[in-house]
Write a structure and sequence with these properties.
With 494 residues, this protein is of the alpha/beta class. The chain has 15 helices and 13 strands. The longest helix is centred in the last third of the chain and has 25 residues.
């Protein structure tokens, strides 16, 4: 890496940045300043970053001094990253989920994720914009929009291409090189969708692998934070820094949890050799020609690299009638619990108060309404309703026993293969199982959606597995990435 040519830092990965810092060719402070300059120049157009960390340079300088005095903490020492705006940080940055009601809210302490990343030496550049309340506010809200931050745009085609949601700012920022990497959160598709649409690697971990403490929730049975990066190796590095057990998160105490502090040993360029990959054709039916061609090329590449392609694969859950009651009921309980413990500056302490605040400030807070918030607020907030318990039971039965686990067992698979964040990915979300997407190519044509954007643009190739199969998924994704090298940086927006 040429420290005299800062444009050579475009697309720099964590490994190369760390090597430059270790050699003395680059300091963390200089790296942070470079990213902050890009944010200042490009973010007014993209609206990917909601706010920058006023202490980022000082933190980086302290980490530079620590490196000289005591050595590096590890691969994330001095690496500048962004956090989605629903992840608590106990510093001078706000945590608002994109809402004006929490625009002045400061969390009292770090979330478990922020705490672990900070301990690993990461520098928090700022908070990334997101679809407000993780897109659980209104049925008509555009992905990437928040009343606090405006509409995030896809850097590959601002205003034309779909940006994905709800970790939209994290996706656009990493794609446009406004940070080295970012952390998003997902309930159903919110990491995978923007990663796919922005030419990134995104990983949604198994529920229970990464602590949910200190993250503004939608549904505790499906929520997880996860890495969004430009390479599979970077995603593996970030994941390993976030898996420490947290006694405050009950899901991390469940039997069968398998966690590693380092996932990079699982990366294997020949990892597709002998792997059994299932092709769930049922979920390809809605693809237009351009996107269908991309998934077919991916299947052919996997086969050429030695994978055993099992085509087609079917699952009993394909004909299921899904409902959204789990998210509806869990949102009110989870949000009320979070708001009751919120730090200073929170204008609301319950979902009731949030709805009232939005109504009182409707000209700025309710561009798309709040029908989803009202729908959730009709529940008791206690999770005592039989309809909730039955919906949760059915989700797990269908998505696991009649879905992913059925396919893995019946066809003896290592993983299932999907395009981007298509319909079938909701099955993995309901199961609480891991998903990884990796750049798969660029669709030159697409379908115009209701928001005026088109489905053309970057497309991800997505591998789905069973519980705690992150090592397998990372191996497959890395082998696919190294064989295809589809990641291309977007041009800087005008």
């Amino acid at each position: 890496m040429d420290k005299t040519n800062k444009e050579s830092w475009i697309e720099a990965d964590i490994v190369s940045l760390q090597a430059a810092m270790e050699s003395g060719a680059l300091s963390a402070a200089a790296c942070v300043r470079w990213y902050l300059e890009r944010i200042e120049r490009l973010n007014p157009k993209l609206k990917a970053v909601l706010e920058v960390n006023p202490d980022a340079i000082a933190v980086a300088e302290a980490l530079d001094a620590e490196r000289l005095e005591r050595g590096s903490r590890g691969p994330l020492h001095g690496i500048p990253i962004l956090l989605k705006d629903n992840i608590d940080t106990g510093d001078r940055m706000h945590t608002s989920a994109g809402s004006l009601a929490l625009a002045e809210h400061f969390a009292g302490m770090d979330s478990a994720v922020a705490e672990q990343l900070r301990a690993a030496g990461a520098v928090f550049l700022g908070k990334a914009n997101m679809t407000e309340w993780a897109n659980f506010m209104s049925g008509t809200m555009l992905s990437g929009y928040s009343s606090r931050g405006g509409l995030t745009l896809n850097p590959y085609g601002p205003g034309e291409l779909f940006v994905g949601g709800s970790s939209s700012g994290s996706g656009a920022a990493v794609a446009a090189n406004l940070c080295a990497a970012a952390i998003g959160t997902e309930t159903s598709g919110s990491i995978i969708s923007p990663s796919s649409q922005n030419g990134l690697v995104g990983l949604k971990p198994t529920i229970g692998l990464v602590s949910r403490r200190g993250i503004i929730p939608i549904a505790h049975s499906q929520d997880s934070a996860g890495p969004m990066a430009r390479t599979v190796r970077d995603a593996a590095i970030l994941l390993g820094a976030m898996t420490a057990a947290d006694p405050a998160d009950a899901a991390m105490q469940e039997k069968g949890r398998k966690a590693y502090a380092d996932y990079t040993p699982f990366l294997d360029a020949n990892g597709l050799q002998g792997a059994r990959i299932g092709i769930p054709r049922h979920y390809y039916q809605g693809l237009d020609d351009a996107r269908a061609m991309i998934i077919e090329r991916a299947i052919a590449l996997c086969k050429d690299r030695g994978a055993i392609i099992v085509d087609p694969v079917s699952m009993p859950c394909e004909s299921a009638k899904w409902d959204w009651d789990v998210m509806r009921f869990e949102f009110k309980k989870g949000l009320n619990d979070y708001l009751a413990q919120a730090g200073p500056g929170a204008s609301v302490r319950t979902l009731d108060e949030l709805i009232a605040f939005n109504e009182q400030n409707r000209e700025v807070a309710l561009k798309y309404g709040q029908d989803t918030l009202i729908w959730s607020n009709e529940t008791s907030g206690t999770l005592s309703e039989p309809v909730y318990a039955e919906s949760l039971r059915l989700n797990r039965e269908l998505a696991r026993n009649q879905g992913i686990d059925h396919a893995i067992r019946a066809y003896r698979l290592d993983a299932l293969l999907f395009l981007g964040n298509e319909e079938g990915l909701d099955v993995s979300a309901r199961a609480g199982y891991p998903v990884i997407t990796v750049p798969g190519g660029y669709a030159e044509t697409g379908i115009i959606a209701e928001d005026g954007c088109t489905t053309k643009g970057p497309q991800g190739i997505t591998f789905v597995g069973t519980a705690y199969s992150e090592p397998v998924l990372l191996r497959l994704a890395y082998a696919y990435e190294q064989a295809s090298l589809h990641r291309l940086a977007p041009a800087d927006p005008d």
